[in-house]
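Reopening this one. Same input as before:
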Amino acid sequence: MEFILLTKEGGFLGPFAWVFGQVFNLLYELLSLVGIENVAITVVLFTIVTKLLMTPMTIKQQKFSKMQNVMSPELTAIQEKYKNKKDEKSMRLMQMEQQAVYEKYGTSPTAGCLPMLIMFPIMFALYRVIYAIPAYVTDIGVLYNTIAEALKNQDYFTYMSELAPTLGVATKNFAEMSEGVLTNAHLIDIMTKFGTTQWTNLAETFPSIADIINTNVEKINAIHMIGGFNILDQPRDYGFSLALLIPVLAIVTQLFQSKLSMANTKKNNRGGEENAVVQSMNSMMYIMPFMSGFMCWMFPICIGIYWVASTVVTIIYQFFINRHIDKMDLDEMIQKNVEKQTKKREKLGIEYGSKMAELAKTQTKSIDAEAAVQRQKGSTASYANATGKNYTAERSASSAGTDKKSVSGYANMLKKD
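Same output, byte for byte:
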């Protein structure tokens, strides 16, 4: 597996990585002021702070999850109602009835997507910072840069360029390599992947600068040591030892988090039934912890510490957030959602129910042709005429209580619940 470490992450993730890099650097410097220069402790504090920074999105996501659990029985019932109906008209009616449920609760099918879309690049940016700490922590970067400067006076190119692929560093992004040159940034990218063995070999390969290498490596190792283990090494490097606690803790903590998540889902699920999507997610909740444990075994201990710390903080964090959300009045939450959605529509000049009308618009050539025929006859472009129904007669029948199954009647019943 290749990791592209470009000293500081560029492209789309660049701004996110820069922000979190500044946070990590600040935490490290604050700890240094009280005599604690340790990357592992900084990683734990970094995890806590980043979780706090993402509080608004987390709360929003949890609120949507609770609302989704409340809506789930109604949405499932609609899906069952149209289970064996695949014609265009039935599909449109199903979409309209589902949209009516979302309208009733003042939310939308995409309401839970935005927080996730925002959190994904943030999570990737967090990993980039953890993978390239010397690029963001000034004091640590200086130690690596001192070694890089010393190497520039040696015949370093062949050794370092051949070593890079074995460490998983993608040198194809090093433009200067075609000229037989590695910049300080490139050398630091490679050395960031070094463990104890690589540092020892480097000093033996370049004996003339061994003192510079060993002096700075001693400082680098000191700030990366915890419990007698260098967090730049992989747990498997230590065989059957206490280093195994990292992958084991990764499995145990994530299993616990999965159990907690499933318990909350069942508690909030009023219908008490699990659909296929929920069952699939439950299966993944058992598989992912063991995958995480394997990756923590293969990756540097530093990554494992972040993984375990992140899971533990998430468990504690979710406990308090769930308690906060559970205390909130569901009816009041729904009312606020509806008011918020109404205000948004008013700003956009959209009348209530127009979303359903949009969903009811024809999506195929055959139904478009039908609508065109209706327009030629002088009818309006409403949903009723687009489907060929006598809207006036249907509305009268609905108001008289003779057509309880009409879409408009169903939507109105939902609004009055």
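So the earlier flakiness isn't reproducible anymore. For the record, The first strand starts at residue 225 and ends at 226.
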